[in-house]
Prior knowledge:
heterodimer, B: mainly alpha, three-stranded antiparallel β-sheet, 4 helices, elongated
Amino acid sequence: MVLVGRQLTIYPSFFKNFAPLSPIVDDYYWYHQNHYQLITQEPLLCCSILSVSCRYHTLRGGGGPSRNVLLHQRIWRHCEHLVSRIVLGQEKRSKAKTRTFRSIQALLILTEWYPRAIHFPPEADGWDSSLIFLVPDERDEPGSNQADGAAHVAAKWLEDVVAPARMGDRMSWMFLGCAMSLGHELGVFQARTNDGPSGVRRHKDAANYPWMRKLLYIADQQFSARLNCTSMIPMSLDLSISDSAPSDDGPANFSSSLINSWFGLSQLARSISGTVFSSTAVTRQLLQSHGYVNVVRYFQQQLSRWRESNLDILGTLPPPPTFYFFTCCAS
Amino acid sequence: MQASITTTDYSFIQQVIDGSCQVLQGVSRLAQSNALSHCTVRILLRAIAASIFLLKALSMGAPTTRLDESLCTLQRGIEALRGSTWDDMHLASRYAALLELHVAHLRRSFVAGTAPDGIPIPDFNNSDATLGADGSIIGGYGSTGHFAGEEWLSLPFDVSMAPFGVTGNESAQFLGLDDGDWDFLWGLPLV
């Protein structure tokens, strides 16, 4: 794909409007001299940036929104193809490799800004549309798959909000898992050495590995809490993630203090989830015994301490989401 | 339900209301600076969660002024979400449209009642109150869209609004924890 015509307007728009709102993308590929490298060697990152920007920036000229939709769909289809190549273990023989550090960034970008596709069924969907797949049957065993129902949710809520949100969450969780696996493969989680797994020398992006470890930890905490899944990061890696030398500040265009503050908040949020929501029985016991009062007050102190030590650096921010979420669930 | 709320629980509920309103005010500020349209999905989901927590907390009961201010903040947040994207399929615009209908329905459902013991109550003024069909006093929701007088308003208790199973009912499941996702957040009454 060549950066010509309309792509020239939506590509820099990504770095102007989107990149500052998420610490995932650095500005290395914003500079014109690096565009050739992006196009020829990082196809997934290139496509993910264009796909996201297409969805949110209206093209100039007649029929802008319609052309936006068409361009976004075509680029997204290519993104799907590239991600499936990663999952299936395939790798291109050309310079346009998919199993790269920048592909990890691309996968995380796709968890931050969803494609339009979450609102529609897959194009190949429909082979299971007959009634045998939808209505309950005496041959269905207990605990087997159930067709989606809308008994407790009005149809409009389900169709317009719940279903797309669920699909987006599940897609992001899968992308995150793919990013984690790729990270392990490339040695992102390895201790500081010159060699990665299988004796492969560490890539030129190795200086960004500590920063990426923290980003993956933060993303893992957010999605595992949102989906009520267990964390993908084993506790044995916690030390290598939290341990970072002053030289591991990562790319220069974003604040390392922001990442470290966010990382601290994620650790606190994980601690809260583990204490209060570790199981249904534990939560029920806390509520019925009124033990939640002391637990809430303890974590309120922890959150206030985090806010005092981090907010002065970061400036005015909304209150930590878990602050009110936790107190709400305990009331 | 009201009788089981302690002053500690009430303070927690007020923190939820305060925090949720601050998140929604942040969303409105992002919209004013044209940054909301570029925000990540997690910002949007935080805003959605804040709006739902706010409604659930307000349903437990609040003085009229507090209720009115909170619903105005929510309305501004809804307008910010709706105007944040040109894409009519975007989650923000769809959610905002449905939530606006839901809030309009909820405004008409608040009923006046007695505040829990130990909760400080402003002076009551029932001059605009009317009787409902079942004899309950309906808060004065006038044509201006604001509640009249200072009363303690709450929603009739609906188990589908509760995030967890009913206390003491061992057969009730913990919605959301068993499903593995935030299904309980979507347990809003039919619009």
